[in-house]
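Hey everyone, long-time lurker, first post.

I ran two proteins through the pipeline my lab uses and got sequence/structure pairs for each. Pasting them in order. The first:
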Amino acid sequence: MINKMRLLTVVGARPQFIKAAAISRCLKHNQYSEVEEKIVHTGQHYDSQMSDTFFSELGVPEPSWNLHAGQIKDTDHQLGAMISGIKKIIADWLPNCVLVYGDTNSTLAGALAAASFGVPLAHVEAGLRSYRSTMPEEINRVICDRLSNILFCPTNQAVENLNSEGRYDHVHLVGDVMYDVFKREMNLIRSENLENVDFFSEKFVLSTIHRAENTNDPIRLQCLADALSLTAESIGVVLPLHPRTRRDIERFNIIFSDRVRIIEPLSYKELLSVLARSSVVATDSGGLQKEAYFAAVPCVTLREETEWVETVESGWNILLPPTGGTDAARDISSGIMMALEKRNKTAPPEIYGDGNAAGKILQVVLNL
């Protein structure tokens, strides 16, 4: 009997479910029959609309373990529970490799757990840097890259970032796994009629807000509400609301104009369909910035920096942070309206690979 290579995939948040889908689908091919993948879901996103629907829509195998860590409100305790849970799984299942994605606390937990056992660690989306040392995601990225045995980079810039930090060995430029999934799903969506998005017909802005730096600060959060409200005077604004953001809006009594259309979170397919019909994206999400770029929709990023610097350099993304006050709100609204002019005029350069990042990743993992 042939012993299969055991691959433990750690996920916990929406973008990671999407990235994991690319790898899991690729593993269904016969050439990877010697690999056995099991998924641990940390439960960092535990709302069914932010978690369960993504697994079912994208065809990701049901997680073998769910740590339900999202029910723990304290961030430090939540991280500790994730690390403890993943360490127990590693001790019981004895994987040959732990695969982590992105820059969330689930990523960090998987990296620390693997390192404590000396299990080879592979990081997908390695080398991204915002160079903002106080940003939780930046801390997670740097620590994970330092601990990783294999570094899978989505862009040339990510490779250069690692090289500048002295990392040259086991650094692989593979492209972006999110682009793999985007290409496949967008082709399917164009032939489908999704009932929840049929009402989007005219020009509109698609906005999402969920970063702690924006939602935990009532001044920044109200600035975003004011900016979107100003924009809604000229063009439609659709805001699918993250559960945590909804709670913070209620907690801080943040006021939006009635013209801003606040809706429940969208499934991945629904989000892509709405994105394809949108005129501009205004977001603080790293994932949606890229998806906007893939869809050739101009983006306004509601942060001081972005890890996806190529989107800014190409002119398809601008940074407008909600620093607070009337001027900042007006600047964001003006930036959104200026971005409208770019829609449908040109196509962005291809900088995220050829749509086969998952296959390239698995070829490296198989050679461990």
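...and the second, right after it:
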Amino acid sequence: MILSTTFRCMQSAAPLHNFTIGTFSGLCSVAVRTMSDHMDKTAQSFREPGISEAEVVSIDQASETVKVLKLKVVDPSFTFKAGQWVDFFVEGLDIFTGYSMYSGPTQLKEDSTIDLAVKFSDYPPTVWVHNQCAVGSKVKVRTGGDKLVFDPKPGDPSWNVLLIGGGIGINPLISLMHHAADLHDQKKANPQGYTPGKMELLFSASTKNELIFKDTIDELISKHSPDIAARFYVTKDSDVDSPISNRRIDASDIKSSVERLRDGPLRCFVCGPPTMIADMEGLLGNEGIPASDIFCEKWW
């Protein structure tokens, strides 16, 4: 997932430190152009100051186009909040990119690992992930992002949350879902802790095979229903059965979700391609959701 920005959702860039400057044969013009775009579009975002070493401890295929990596982070001071991303550095490449975590912060605390899902593209670090990365490969990561973050504290309002994701844009949203599930569990153990509200996900992909992590989402729902719920959509696959809908997310879906979640204060998080984000922002605005309660991150 290569991250871009909207007026409330940004990633930033910073100089490469302690990295070998290399070339990526055959993709130089693409690399230069994309590096410039990345640097230009992400220059104002929050970033942690340190870069941490990490080792790839497992690789799996989430779909035909998406690889998932589990990274063991060496630095014990490395942290992130649900919805953040990491700058992802590969030794020998003179550019870097950003990938959102789809795991939750509790996993990092428990075993020092983070999970990334990377959709194939011709961007050099992503080509490396799909074609060269192996168990034992060493990379470096740096936490960033502050706009698509869900990190409530005791005493904060019990926000209800609507998540809207398109394709690989599910990554930060499922991190939010993991964190919400952990908050519900923590509330049972500590009644004085934060009281989470309800969370609902609308997840759209081109085909049912690209509804990555559906099994994980279904498991979260089975454990935390009715506090956590989801609906699924595909846009280019007619061979689907209920509960998957063979259409795009539309105004009626937004309206019904907002109505279900309006029994408390509501925040909306949207991640997907730029056209989808623009459509969803418009539909949410039509339902009276103020722009200050809509948080977006786009990918391309």
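Reply from user beta_strand_b:
Welcome! Quick read of the second one: The CA atoms of residues 270 and 296 lie 5 Å apart. The helical segments are 28-41, 105-111, 124-131, 170-189, 214-224, 251-261, 274-286.
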